[in-house]
Amino acid sequence: MTLALILYFLLAFVLVVKLLLNGIRPTKTLAWLLAIFTIPVGGMLFYFILGRNRKKNKFYTLKKTKEISKYLNNVENYYGTIKDNNSTPADIKNHIKLAKLITKGSNFSPTIGNELIPLKNGQNTFNAIFKAMEGAKKFIHIQYYIFEEGVLAEKFKSILKQKIKEGVEVRFLYDALGSRKLSNKYINKLKDTGIQVNSFLPMRLGRLLSSINYRNHRKIIIVDGDIGFTGGINVSDKYITGDPDLGKWYDMHLQIKGPLVNSLQAVFAMDWSFASGTDNLLNTYYLKHSTPGKSIAQVVASGPDSDFSSVKQLYFSMISNANKYIYIINPYIIPGEALMEALKVAAMSGIDIRLLLSANSDSFLVKWNVRSHFEDLLEAGVKIYLYSDGFLHSKVIISDDALTSIGTANLDIRSFEQNYEVNALIYDKEITTNLKLDFLNDCKKSRQIDYKQFIKRPKLERLKEGMAKVFSPVL
Predict the structure, then answer these.
(1) Is 395 a catalytic residue?
(2) In this predicted model, what pLDDT tens digit does every residue of 216-233 receive, in sequence order?
């Protein structure tokens, strides 16, 4: 027993030193210290699963990221160096600081000449995806956080099987935790047809504690380098037939043609490199695109081992620099201190801040955690709308008839610090204005929360909020 205690305290001392060296927030450091010393064994176990700083222990090498960035910046229609001069397009010039911020943090420059089509809801999205895949001539790259078996999954398998027969290369990447229900039978059928399949951070005993909390939340499809898709929609029949508890799921995806596809392909290439252990995609499968459209856009990618939380910086910058309005659709709004303050300051400054989210949630803890922030936001003047006709899963931010972000990242700590995410930042007045009208129409169908009524909510609800809020860092 004495030896066990000595070993325990030696290990605790090592963890304390690591916490201090990692330089995380003081409040977070204190919380972990209390857990380690007050919860025997369990405190250490939680730290190994949830507490380690991936910025100090990178999965990827920055060298690979920068190599791809350098390669892309030599391709036509990319801005390698962003300057505020007469040659800079107005859409970028008006947001030069934001463009520089994302380029610095995410290593992807703005691209010009893109055709971007927002795809609302599952049926429209999968119709477009299947049409693109059926037209593939060279390769199809697929990546999903959740890929569930069902009607949609069978359609994917059928198309991919045919494409393999036609000589098309197919690569399929899924997150091991998000797609944990995907059967070995389905995966083996994909492999048997000649599809290259890999999982991101597979659930293996030897690395389970170090990897289970860090997931790949991206959704990406690239076809022939000509057309790409990303956004909030996973492969699940609930987007088509609905969910028994929440009803039909509503979401937003983005179809991309033009040079932005290369940036999306680069994100896939890095994830494939990590999952497969090969670098054969890092400097291949990129095209010198024509300009099929007129939109300027920029990929924003970040993960737990990124030098900067680019998605968090994107959201913070959009909120802080808005002049007229910020409209946000997101199912999981757990903003953390910085973004919480940004939202309140913007609202108190007279900016029209509106949040649209579902009245119901797919998680008890998430539902009450999200609601725990409502009182402070409402008091500051933020308008909150609850949508009850199904479940809103979109991750969209629009601002000032000028900027739109569509992607995979929620407005929560997990997306900012623990997940690999990818968003598209769109500098386009027409797209933003159309999405604004769509947003306002959805608000009319929703119930606006009244501050004076909300503060009278039962103490039991306040208790649920307080208990759920404790789990903010891991939700």
Answers:
(1) yes
(2) 999 999 999 999 999 999
